[in-house]
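Here comes my example:
=====
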Amino acid sequence: MKKLKNKIIWITGASSGIGQALAIALAYEGAHLILSARNEAKLGIIQKACRRYTSFCIIEPLDLSKSENIDDHVDNVIKQTGSIDILINNAGVSQRALAMETPIEIDRRIMEVNFFGTVSLTKRILPYMLKQNSGNIIAVSSISGKFGFPLRTTYSASKHAVQGFFESLRAELKNENIKVTIVSPGRIKTNISLNAITTDGSPYNIMDAGQAGGMSPEKCAKKIISAIKKQRKEVLIGNKEILMVYIRRWLPALYHRLVTKVKN
């Protein structure tokens, strides 16, 4: 899949951050795009920017926390496109809260968006990919899906779940010509910490220092697109923070010391 021109690509979480950067970069590649997120007004702005480069870009406002509506969204998109070549599961919500102070309802809300909503959409798209005997599913996880992290207990758990589901799905689809790529970003300079959920469900509204100094979403998007073209199984994206993945694996005692020093 060296060229993405005219490929039908559905991006969730496309209204800002990595999703927005992916939308514009893929439009430049000539891809045919479906952009989804909760904020329809922001999607409209991104759609306008994408249409400078691609002949086909539609928006499908979507709230992954309401998985009961996903069938209708998929039906609506398929009526307009006929099929989906690439599904980029990018939408998600982060967390900044201690586990002991977080009501279970907040935990369920995070899991619903990051895991169940993503899985529901993927399962609904799979029959179309199986029918055409081709497809690529991208799951945007996080390095927090590789190890535990303070103030992100349920966020980390949801990303661990994403890792497990899509690794297993990849194995199941081995003979179906459908590729699965798991992307694990580290610190990317987006509004993810600003929008992170606190104990009462309200946004954190603080830009983490690590986030502010992170990789640009445009550079991250470029690396994701490269991984798609190369049909990579997995890719870590970030700066020095991704070293924590290897420290956790090979130097667990050091990891346990370092992770307790995290402030945000």
